Amino acid sequence: MRKKRWVPWVLVGPALLIIVLTTIYPLLAALYFSFHKYNLRRPPQFAIQFGENGIQIDWSLLSLNNYTLAFSDSRFINSLQVTFWFTVISVALSVIIGLFIAVVVQKGGRLHTLTKVLLIFPFAVSPALKGYSWRFMLNENYGIYDLLIDQLIVRPINALLSIINALPIVEIPLISESIVWLGDKFWALFMLAMSETWGWAPLIALMFVGALGSIDEQIFEAARIDGANRLQIFFRVTLPLLRPVILIVTMLKTIFSLKMFDQVVTMTGGGPVRATQTINYYIHQIGFVRSLDIGYASAMSYILVVVLTICAALYVSLVLNRD
Amino acid sequence: MTANTIGQNQSSLRLQSLKVLETLALLLIIAFIVLPILWLAITAIKPQEKAYSTTLIFSPTLENFEIIFSDTSVIINEGTDRERGEVGRNMFPSVLNSVVVSGATILIAIPLATLAAYAFSRYSFVGNGVLLVWILTTQFIPAIVVAIPFFTLFRTIEVFGKPLLGTQLGLIIVNMSIVLPYAIWMIKGFVDALPGEIEEAAFVDGCNDFQILFFISLPLIRPGVLVASVFAFIMSWNEFLFALIIGREMRTMQVALMTTSGARGIMWEQMAAAGLVVMIPIFFLAMFIRKNVVDGLTMGAVK
Q: Which of A119, A265, A311 comes nearest B33 by C-beta?
């Protein structure tokens, strides 16, 4: 309707300028750093020099050393593996538990409505605080989770196992009641993923509740009249209808999980023995805590950028092709 | 009893047991969600000697809040534990830092995002679609990539004779990289939902572009802008990686949580109290934008 061509650019301009400065600039700078030997302890020598004779480029200062170093660094490889498993566990748990919550709370009823309101609660807890609170609750001496897991899960299972063991058929070892959750390599990673799941499953449930609400109730009604039971309705009707939303949510959560950092710092500190050192955490250690090697940190973060770009492309194509 | 009534009894029994199962599932979900928050709240009001146990028998106290907000925390703790005494710090400056950084971030980001969102929604210009998708993808850039170059840059840039590293301004600048793209997408959603007829009518009546924007459209999308502001505030309040690397000694509350840990480990009663201080304002804000959280998190991808 309106003709003035310059108007939108005036409106978009300032925001665009700031986004370019705060995202494109660091992306280019980090790429540039990644080809250099650049440690915070020494003044860096950059390939591009602005001398009296204009711009000079010293090609000998550029190298791929940081990248080749990454793939021969067992700790970086370890962080790739940790991030991979953390992502797999946290995404699977978040989506499955989120789906479970959504299906349970979907219907009316007072308790259902109350639970729906509560779903927003974990959103108010910052990731850093989440890490601390889980660490506190998992403490082997005075943690409430440690107590509950022992009383409600480990003991009943052990009681069952003792009965089975009483029969002279098999001998199954009992589960230890004194597992130090954050001191065990597997459990530390699992609990890190659980803390992430605690934050995300309720939000993902909210997303599914919204999507379920937009499905025509008649479809479920028709399935019920045709004699389908609850499980059949869930697997044959609900799941297929939710498929596009599940895909988008899974992709989005994957992207967030790949960037895991906050809780690693506050909950496990990367330990025990690097078992929870995600890529982001390791980059932070190299760049800002231990060797202060900005060049190497930049190279590793660029490897992360490449992985995330692939995921982001998948995500955007999922979202855009939805209709 | 006829076969018919037996069948009915069985089905009603099954229905009832399903009801019981459903209620149990709901209670389990509620416990799963609430327990960590509840336990934090309980620990925050426990006296120090009871905090390191799972006991629920204690006389509630505000002592822990007093400790984290007083300079005398060193002395109070020295009596019981010398090493612990060293870590006590007044957290009030950190609360202030968080408020200033988050507040300034939205004061800068929201007006700019509103103008941009309006243009993206209402004008078709070269690159409109491409730019929007590009803005969407900037949220997938890992924060660490943004932090590294700004860390080295802010070490050298000085404002008022002080390097930008470890200042509120420095943190506000890097916060833009995450807040602006979000805000643009959120607000664009609200502008899109606004019917264009009112603006058409104003145009026919002779209003120019800016008159329409400021006097017709902006007042109408104000609720949406408010929601986006709250969302942006929560994002920068809860932000940790930038606060740690760029904010540094200027500790925001998220980083100040770490100061409750010392040679003897974390003082959980103080951590819990500080945690509540961090959480409670965001809690109310989150309730306020409850209906928009899903849209905000997914930028409207799930509807």
A: A119
Residue B274 to residue B279: CA distance in whole angstroms: 9
The whole-angstrom separation of Cα A123 and Cα A102 is 16
Report yes or no: B139 and B178 within 8 Å, Cβ to Cβ. Answer: yes
CB contact under 8 A, B302 and A203: no
Is B43:B272 a contact under the CB 8 Å cutoff?
Answer: yes
Residue A125 confidence class, pLDDT cut points 50, 70, 90: very high
Q: Which of A119, A198, A249 sits opposite B302 (nearest CB)?
A: A249
Contact B171, B246 (CB under 8 A): yes
| Closest in B23, B234, B282 to A111, CB measured | B23
Number of CB atoms found within 10 A of residue B41's CB: 16
Interface of B with A in 155-194 (CB under 8 A): 173-174, 176-177, 180-181, 184
The answer for residues whose C-beta is within 8 angstroms of residue B84's C-beta and 6 or more apart is B77, B262, B263, B264, B267
Contact status of B150 with chain A (Cβ, < 8 Å): yes
Report d(CA A298, CA A305) in Å as an integer.
10
Contact B34 A2 (CB under 8 A): no
Q: What are phi and psi of A155, to 5 degrees?
A: -60, -50
Cα-flanking dihedrals φ and ψ of residue A56, to 5°?
-120, 140
User: Which residue, among A44, A15, A80, A120, has the nearest Cα to A280 in the 3D structure?
Assistant: A80
Closest CA to B297 of B255, B238, B246: B238
Please provide residue B292's backbone torsions phi and psi, each rounded to the nearest 5 degrees.
-105, 0
- Compute the distance between CA of residue A286 and CA of residue A189 in angstroms, rounded to an integer: 21
**Model confidence pLDDT, tens digit, residues B110-151:** 999 999 999 998 888 888 888 988 888 888 899 999 999 999
A192-201 core/surface letters (b: 16 or more CB in 10 A; e: else): bbbbbbbbbb
Asked whether the beta carbons of residue A210 and residue B125 sit closer than 8 angstroms, the reply is no
Chain A positions in Cβ-Cβ contact with residue B30 (cut-off 8 Å): 114-115, 118
Which chain A residue is nearest to residue B280, measuring alpha carbons? A124
Cis peptide before B47 (omega within 30 of 0): no
| Chain B contact set for A33 (CB, 8 A) | 148-149, 152
Q: How far, in whole angstroms, is CA B116 from its chain's centroid?
A: 23
The model's pTM: 0.89
> Is residue B85 scored above 60 in pLDDT?
no
This model of the complex carries an ipTM of 0.88
Give the one of A202, A203, A298 whose C-beta lies nearest to B148's C-beta: A298
Contacts of A254 in chain B (CB under 8 A): none
Residue whose pair of structure tokens reads 């103008």 in the numeric block: B115
